[in-house]
Amino acid sequence: MSRKFGTIGATAAAALLAAGAAACQSSTQATKVGSDAQSVQTSGTSAAGSASPSTSAPAAKTFKVGDQVQNGKWIVTVHKADVPFTPKNDFDKPKDGDMFVVLDVEVKNTSGSAQDFSSMLGFELKDGANQTYDETILAEDGMPAVPEGSVAAGEAKRGEVAFEVPKTAKGLKLEFRGGVMDGQVAIDLGH
């Protein structure tokens, strides 16, 4: 009896693992919102759900500043990119050889319930050499707060997100991931 149960249990566990793997590989469509909207695959599977012939996942689709991009439950927009950003105060100084990049970003919750958003988890800056940069906190007076916290259904939060990067960094892109299961979307900053 226990041997039969063990076989059934092992079969059930294998089925659950396969279902979990399929869920992890499900595709998320990143969609540009607006008149010239387009739908873009952001995972390693095709729209029909079959695996891509390539052994590596395709690069995230790149959008541009000003595009409204739907990714999962969120629409993200980079309204403006200040590259380089020069603080008006004496407190915020980049390290020698570095510069600040400040992005005016907006995130809109398109789900039917309130969602939490963290700019430190949702945004990452990447350069053309695939070097990543984390968010930097600046003390600039009058600088809008970063979009953080609970966002009600259908509502948006807008603010500025700062990064410190080498002055030589080229090919800067803001990468956005709205949720754990969402694909990553890249927004080219034009620098």
TrEMBL record:
It comes from the Bacteria. Residues 28-59 are annotated as: Disordered. Keywords: Signal. PROSITE patterns: PROKAR_LIPOPROTEIN. Residues 1-23 form the signal peptide. Residues 42-59 have a biased composition (Low complexity). It holds the Pfam family DUF4352. InterPro entries: DUF4352, Immunoprotect_excell_Ig-like. This is DUF4352 domain-containing protein. Residues 63-184 form the DUF4352 domain.
